[in-house]
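Journal club prep — side note

Before the paper discussion, L.F. wants everyone to see what a predicted structure for a comparable chain looks like in token form. Sequence:
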Amino acid sequence: MVADAGLLDFNGTFIAELIAFILMILILGRYAYPRIMAAANAREERIEAGLRAAQESEQRLLQVQEEVRKTLDEAKAQAREILSRSHADATVEAQQVLQNARAEAEAQIERARIDIGAERDRAIQELRGEVSALVVEATGKLVGETLDAQKHQRLIDEALNRVGGAAPAASSRN
């Protein structure tokens, strides 16, 4: 009868194996599976948290990149504005320097004209004095007599009128 044993024959080992199997499932279900499932769930949660953190980091990175781009745009705009203002300020300052230089040059020219006019008047006065002395001396030699002050002044005025073409103030006294 030993040879007729089949796969589904119930014997003592089958029951022992069935009891061992059920005990193993109960022990594993009671002690091992909850720990394995908790570790798997914890790992799954860590992975999900890592994915969320990666997504948040990516979003923050995009926000930071956008803020950096805006900041750079603002800085470029401010730089252009500063350059524009400094160029305008430099232009205004250059125009002021040019105007000041022109005004100073005109003032120097005017001072030179005044100095030249004063020098010319002084030279004319000296020349009149020398001419009058020469006229008095020449007249004295020609006439051979000494002239009184009134005749002397009249002769000087006449000589100056001929030489200068302008009547001196003294001739209006006669």
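L.F.'s comment for the group: The CA atoms of residues 80 and 86 lie 10 Å apart. Keep this in mind when we get to the figures.
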